[in-house]
Amino acid sequence: MPGTLYDILGVSTNATPEEGITISFSTTHVLVQEFNEYFIWTVRRAYKQKALETHPDKLDPGSSDEEKQAAKAQFYKVQEALEVLSDPVKRTHYNVRMRIVSRGFQPVLSEEHARRLRERDAWVKQQKEVHEMRLKEIRERNQQLKVQAESRLREAEERGALVQKMLEEVDNIHPEWRERKQNVLMRRAARLSSASAAKRAT
User: Fold this and answer.
1) Is the pTM higher than 0.90?
2) Pick from 117, 119, 95, 118: nearest CA to 108
């Protein structure tokens, strides 16, 4: 990708206000203001086009991590170009910096921007590691709860089977208990039926 912010957006470096608009004092402010408005409009139009071309979402789903990082860095440079070139003060400072390094507008990329990119990538990596660690803890905790629930369910089933076995043994030892239980259930059902019929009659 081209080096200067002008090249990144494909905007001409000619005829910027600080490069020699020599007009009378009475008209300087008006003409410079009009030029700035037109230049900013040109920069924003170029930015929209470049942003669409360089957006990381344009990458194929199977792109490698290196390609994704390169696409992000490229897109951030486009954003930096918009931020600097659309601001007359920042644009003037940028042009002065380029002149200091070389009289021919040689590429001068922002070290501060590169530092912010490195810090952001490190922060994203750290947050990703923290997120993955928390997910791992949650999965382990859920697995423990699942094992405990299954163990308690097995214990309940075993206790239920044991109680059922004990009841069957009691019935076998004392057959009359089974008859008594059936009689009790029948009398209870009869009482409930009588109560229901009386309630309907009233």
Assistant:
1) no
2) 95
